[in-house]
Amino acid sequence: MNLEQALGILSKSSPYAVSTELDNSQDKLAVYKKYIYIETEIEADFAQSLTSMNSGDILFLCGSSGDGKSEILTRYSQQFKSRIDFHLDATHSFSPDQTAIEALDDRFLKTKQTQRPLVLGVNIGMLGNYAEEGSTSHDDIKSSLKAFLDSNSQNIPENHRYLDFEHYPKFKLSQEECTSEFADSLIHKLTNTSLENPFYALYQNQIQKTGHSRLTANFGLLGLESVRKTVVDLLLKARLIKDQFLTARTLLDFIHQIITGKSYLFDNLFLGGDNDLLSHIRSFDPSNIHTRKVDEFILQFSLGIEDEEFLLLEKQAREYGVFEINNPQSYLRLAYIVKNEAEFDNAYLNDLRRDFENTLVARFANNWVLHKDFDGSGSQKKELNLFYKEVLIASIHKYCNRHAPTLDKDTFFVAQYNGFKIAAELEVKPNFVEIAANSANPARIGYFVAHIQVDDQPLIPMPISIKLMELLIKITQGYRPNKHDKNAVLLLDEAIDQLLNQANRKNVLTIIKDDRRYKVTDEGDSYFEVSGLV
Amino acid sequence: MINDQYSVPFNENLAQTKEDVPNKNALNSYFPLRTKGNDFEWDAVIGLVLSSLLRKEMKSKYSYEDFNHDCKKSLEEKLSESEFWQVLQQMYFDEKDVFSISPELLLFRAQKNEFNTSDQRISSLFINLMQAERVSQFDEKLNFIEQEFLCVLRAHLKDKQVKIKEESYLPHLTNAFKADLRFLSSKPKYLLSEFKHFLSFYGFTYAAQLSLAISDWITCEEPKSKPLYFIMDHEKASNERTHVKLHGYKLFSESSFKVFPILTMLEQLQKEGQAKVPLWKMAEKIKLSEYDCLNKLRNFALAFRSQRNLDTKLEDSEQAIGWLGNIVKLTEAQFRDDKTDRPSINKKYVGEIEKYLAYGFIQSRGRSGKVLVLNQDYTILLTNLVIAHEDKLRFHELLLGFQQRGIFVDKQTEQELIKFYERIGNIERMSDSGDAVYVRKTI
């Protein structure tokens, strides 16, 4: 047994990727699997729910494929199966699988007959399908599913409980930092320098026998807290910017590939690979960043210029088993993953670190937290107002007025007829009442919901993803959306349509052509006051 | 009505002898095209369709110039400065921009002398498809000046009687068309910008679905949506895509050859003074009738065969429905009789179908031949129509909505659709499995 073999249990192709109820107590790899297991918050809630289930209760454990539903169900079914029925549905396809739906029909029928508590592990897509296609004899269950899918909790029967992996976000956003307890715990446990860690024992043993290899170098680097933090940040970016779901299976395989891939950790991270997370993370490759410092570094490296600080970086890397880096891109990637590590402190890194910072994620996370934790206080309103006034409302105004850029603030282009522009003055501002009301809803990590009002009329809530936020910021900086930015255009168009409906209700219109400007006011009683004629 | 089953369910004057069989194959129902003279203008068609939808028409001849003059008079009375009218005249009337403020303005083209026979025939396709659907008025958000213009127009409108001359041949399509009209009517600006595309799509899918359904009359039941496979316009049409190859353009083209022959025969079977009925309903009436239909239908079949000099073998049936089958066989046979010019007439007819109703949906793909395609604009329009008043819809349900409207896609195009929606940003995933994909509309 060596480190590479032990790490193999993380691979998605490993038979250990999904638990079975086979007796594996004699298997040599079992000790590693048992060690690496991380109990999650949803599992704790699941265990607690099991102990309080009564006759007729149904517990739905819902998520994506690879979330770990079967893992959890397998762990607990042995212990509780004498009084609780367990059912795991593994269906996922583009069209409803009639067999799976019929299986669920049968399952619910049996449950109603026996009144034994039921635990159902089910893909959330199948829930949607069953809610539409299931037997009418289970309309009570179908209504419950629809209520759950519509986040309509008061219509969920008391004997139904839903545990949704999506409501146990794998990332937590707060003012200070972004964390993922699950990913962080998993990597930390795997690489922990403790005698209790069987992986670490293999790592030490291998170094003592044969010295450092790429495998041991990667394992050691990943064990650094700062590297772990950087990896978690990359996972968050993949989640937010690429909308890549993070499931237990994908994460385990990801860790396997970055450690055991054919290159050093930092190259394995950014050179893609047969893993969804890696294929997204490659687009964040720091060697693709073009700043003066980065370009200078690449040029100097090619010229072979010796620099004292650079030599120090090389020496520091060697202490972790990193030898023979022969291209500047790899050095940049190394610099990136250790950018927060005290042991790699040197002038080179300090210069590059600023170029590696990503303010968009921080800005998105900050607004996400502000919306989720909004308490109505003046200071929070002030902070929220920055986003609304400077980004959302400003970009709506700029986009709405793209054909009439000289219009004043608070004046919005409505229509154009034969070269004459119609505009109206509107008061657009954040709707703090709705923001406060909405903050009670379960927050999804991929977006926060913005609420604005026009002349005190609320508009439809606007989901703001990080991609949309980026485009809104670019619009305020003068960028004009094109056909490839349809997402932003659609949401903006929807907001603007509502805004212009409000504009057409105004009793004051401004009409502009070239440098002529007229104002027409409906004074009531069939009288329209006109000003601006000369 | 109980009495119905004792009356003759088809044309009482159906020819019974060779001499009485009409020489000519006339078509005046269920299809808007003729073998020639099919040029039409969408503006006129749209005006006529909206006139029927609103049940409104001009009280008397009302020219654009008259309308312009009346608006001027109305506004000058209200404006604090009469000279401002010159600005409004330039804005709204000099280039006819006023037509873009409300669909009701399009009624100008629904007046006599503003449309031709072909415009009227094409519009009748849609008027019959909507089967008495009505919208009392649109909810445009107009500014107060535009509201004045609309008031002037409405003062010149009167109610219009709309009489349905044909029972719907394709009820599933009628239901979809009605639902889509209601949705579009709730969004007048979208209607104004998309109505031509909307009608163009329904003109095509009606022609396509009718061509597929017209042979399916023996069941005596409403036709269901028939599978007809499309690809997106950027996709490759590989030979291994069986549905695309066998149930795409090829199926549509072959089926189109049945439309004219069967509809001309159906025309002869229709009872006078009643709304015309589809062949499947005619069959149902014949089947349920207590009247002795058999002799009349048999005599007609024998007379028709003799008059057209056909040697088609007829099935000697003891049931009226069997003789209806013989009649359908005969009408198709006459258009395959190479001793006459009927085959070339039918071929020309099929060409007109492609030219006037299907042109936006057919693409030539070199060695793969022709395929049926959905371009991006039609995809977005259809998506918005199917989702309608919902926020979003499961992808599977969206596909069912497409199917109700006659659009089927294979697995490969399903994937392309999802990529397309992802590219324009109206996909919402609730998990990373394909089955939890929800699509939002774009308006």
UniProtKB/TrEMBL annotation, chain A:
Instruction: Give the InterPro entries listed for this entry.
Output: Dnd_assoc_3 (IPR017647)
Q: What is this protein called?
A: DNA phosphorothioation-dependent restriction protein DptF
What is the species of this protein? Answer: Parashewanella spongiae
Q: Lineage of this protein's species?
A: Bacteria, Pseudomonadati, Pseudomonadota, Gammaproteobacteria, Alteromonadales
Q: Which gene holds the coding sequence for this protein? A: dptF
From TrEMBL, chain B:
Recorded hits in InterPro entries, A to Z, give: Dnd_assoc_1
Q: What is this protein called?
A: DNA phosphorothioation-dependent restriction protein DptG
Q: Which organism is it from?
A: Parashewanella spongiae
